[in-house]
Design a protein that fits this description.
A two-stranded antiparallel sheet has the order 1-2. The protein has strands at residues 22-26, 32-36. It is mainly beta and 66 residues long. It has no helices and two strands.
Length: 66
C-alpha cells in the first residue's frame, strides 16, 4: 500500500499523494517536492505546499481508471 515508488500512498505526503493536481518533483540533489498544478492558474494554492497536506479546497482524487 505505501510502496509505490512515486510516494503517492505515503502518509507523510497527505492529500497530495492522490490528488489529480499534484505531481512529485525530484531535485538534482535527491530531494522530493510535490508541485501543485493548481498554483499555475490560482494564486491561492502554493506551488510547493508544506507536507503533509491534511486539508485542501482544491483536492480532487485521481481517477482509479488510469
Amino acid at each position: 500500500m505505501n510502496d509505490r515508488p512515486d510516494g503517492r500512498q505515503d502518509p507523510r505526503v497527505g492529500l497530495c499523494g492522490n490528488c489529480r493536481h499534484a505531481r512529485p518533483i525530484q531535485s538534482d540533489r535527491g530531494s522530493r517536492f510535490w508541485l501543485c498544478e493548481r498554483s499555475r492558474t490560482d494564486p491561492a494554492f502554493p506551488k510547493f505546499p508544506p507536507l503533509p497536506v491534511r486539508t485542501c479546497g482544491g483536492y480532487e482524487p485521481e481517477s482509479e481508471t488510469k
